[in-house]
Design a protein that fits this description.
It is a single chain. This protein is an alpha+beta fold. It folds into 2 domains: about 120 residues, MutM-like, N-terminal (N-terminal domain of MutM-like DNA repair proteins); about 120 residues, Helicase, Ruva Protein, domain 3. Helix content is about 25%, strand content about 25%. The strands form 3 sheets. A 5-stranded antiparallel sheet has the order 3-1-8-9-7. A hairpin with a 2-residue loop joins strand 11 and strand 12. Helix 1 packs parallel to helix 6, helix 3 crosses helix 6 and helix 5 crosses helix 6. It is elongated. About 5% of the residues have low confidence.
Length: about 270
């Protein structure tokens, strides 16, 4: 699943080619992609809306239109492509946006897990998925006190809590492993047992890891690529995640792989306590 750095990379690629263009009309070829409103209302409301900007909130792309925000969550396999109108649709192209320059922005999703929401601007914090999101990693309100308050009643493993989007947004499985390794925190440790100093480390390394990943265009594992088909390079910088049968870069011990909350998790039993 694309995490914050990958979504940020897609956002920047889309901005270069979309800002200022008008959506003439939309065609929905797989109804379940549209989470809100109904398919019919979505098509009616989005027609003739200009794309004025593209932002990111957590793992959501936010297309800033004249009257609405178009939110797009890529989930596992969602991708956007620009194509000429004359090119026939491919099998997994489920949402087609016809633009005013005779091209089309096509949303392709082989797994069909992605979701789109078209929400009135005045209701963006009241309706839809953004209202329940936590802080961005670089928000000045993200402090050790904030995390201590959020963690104190969480008896679940810290790895699982990092993946929950209601505290810090944008962290997925890959980056959670990297952050906890740099912090020296065992992924199985209960969140309620994380100290204030360790909260400071989580904030520090969350920012450092995500910033570096953004600069490198994200992490390409399996099928992720940006809008222009460019693969990220951060996978070459990963210290712990995906290192099956590897050695810890700090102490040389074997890297362990377990499942935490159903997610494959890599860590060093010696360095992470």
């Amino acid at each position: 699943m694309p995490e914050l750095p990958e979504v940020e990379t897609v956002k920047e690629s889309l901005k270069l080619r979309l800002v200022g263009k008008k959506i003439v009309k939309a065609k929905i070829l797989y109804d379940n992609i549209i989470a809100y409103p109904s398919k019919e209302d979505f098509v009616l409301k989005i027609a003739n809306q200009t794309i004025n900007d593209i932002k990111r909130r957590g793992k959501f792309l936010m297309f800033v239109l004249d009257d609405f925000y178009l939110l797009s969550h890529l989930r596992m396999e969602g991708k956007y492509f620009f194509k000429d109108k004359s090119i026939p649709y491919e099998k997994h192209e489920h949402v087609i946006f016809e633009l005013d320059d005779n091209t089309e922005l096509r949303y392709r999703d082989t797994r069909k897990f992605g979701k789109m929401y078209l929400i009135d601007k005045e209701n963006i914090d009241k309706v839809g998925p953004l209202k329940d999101l936590g802080l961005e990693p670089w928000d000045e309100n993200l402090t050790s006190d904030y995390l201590m308050e959020k963690y104190k009643k969480r008896g679940t493993p810290i790895k699982s809590v990092l993946l929950e989007q209601d505290i810090i947004v944008g962290i997925g499985n890959i980056y959670a492993d990297e952050i906890l390794f740099l912090c020296g925190i065992n992924p199985l440790r209960k969140a309620s047992l994380i100290s204030s100093n360790e909260c400071d480390l989580i904030i520090k390394y969350t920012r450092e890891v995500l910033e570096k990943a953004i600069k490198m265009g994200g992490t390409t594992i399996r099928t992720y690529s940006s809008v222009d088909g460019v693969h990220g390079l951060f996978q070459n910088e990963l210290l712990i995640h995906g290192k099956d049968n590897g050695k810890c870069p700090k102490c040389g011990s074997d890297i362990s792989k377990i499942r935490v909350g159903g997610r494959g998790t890599y860590f060093c039993e010696k360095c992470q306590k």
